[in-house]
Amino acid sequence: KEVGNFIIWRMDKGFKTLEMSEAQQDQYDKFRSRLEKTIETGVETRMKFKKQAILEFTKENPDLSVMAMEIKSHVEMMSSTLSKNLSLFADFYNTLDNGQKKKITETIKEKMEDHKRF
Fold first, then answer.
1. For each of the chain's 118 residues, which pLDDT tens digit applies?
2. Would you say the pTM of this structure is higher than 0.85?
3. Would residue 19 be called left, alpha or beta, if left means φ above 0 and alpha means ψ between -120 and 50 degrees?
4. Residue 32 belongs to what H/E stretch?
C-alpha cells in the first residue's frame, strides 16, 4: 500500500507541473481516482490470495487446481481493470495540448533512462 501511495504522490507531483485547465484536471482526477481504487483492490486481493494459499498449503493434500483457477480469475480481473485504467489515462492524455504531452513524454523518457540496465 505504501508503494501505491508513493506512486500516486509522485504522479500528482509530476502532473502539477502541467498547469492543467479545469476540464483537464477533471479528467486527471477520474484517472487518479480509478488508479487509487485499483491499487487498493490489488493490495486487498493479494492479501486475500496469500491467506488462501497459506490455508490451502496447510492441508495434507493441497489442491493446486483450485489455486490455479483462483489465480486465473485474479489475472482476468486485473487485466480488465488495467485496461479501464489505460483508457482513462488515454482520455486524460487526449485533453492535453502538445506542450503538456511533450512534458509527460520527456519525463517518461528520463525515467526510462534511469532504469536501463546494461
1. 788 889 899 899 888 889 999 999 999 999 999 999 888 888 888 888 889 889 988 999 999 998 898 889 888 988 888 898 899 999 999 999 999 999 999 988 988 887 776 5
2. no
3. left
4. helix 22-57
The conformation of residue 96, written as its DSSP 8-state character, comes to S
Q: Which three cell numbers stand for residue 73?
A: 480469475
Query: What are the angstrom distances between the C-alpha of 94 and each of 36, 81, 114?
Result: 21, 20, 26
Give the angle 103-38-117 at the CA atoms, nearest 5°: 50
Q: Is 3 exposed, middle or buried (0-12, 13-18, 19+ CB in 10 A)?
A: exposed
Residue carrying C-alpha cell 511533450: 102
Half-sphere exposure of 79 (CA within 13 A, CB side): 6
Instruction: Say which DSSP state 56 is in.
Output: H
Grid cell in block for residue 8: 500516486
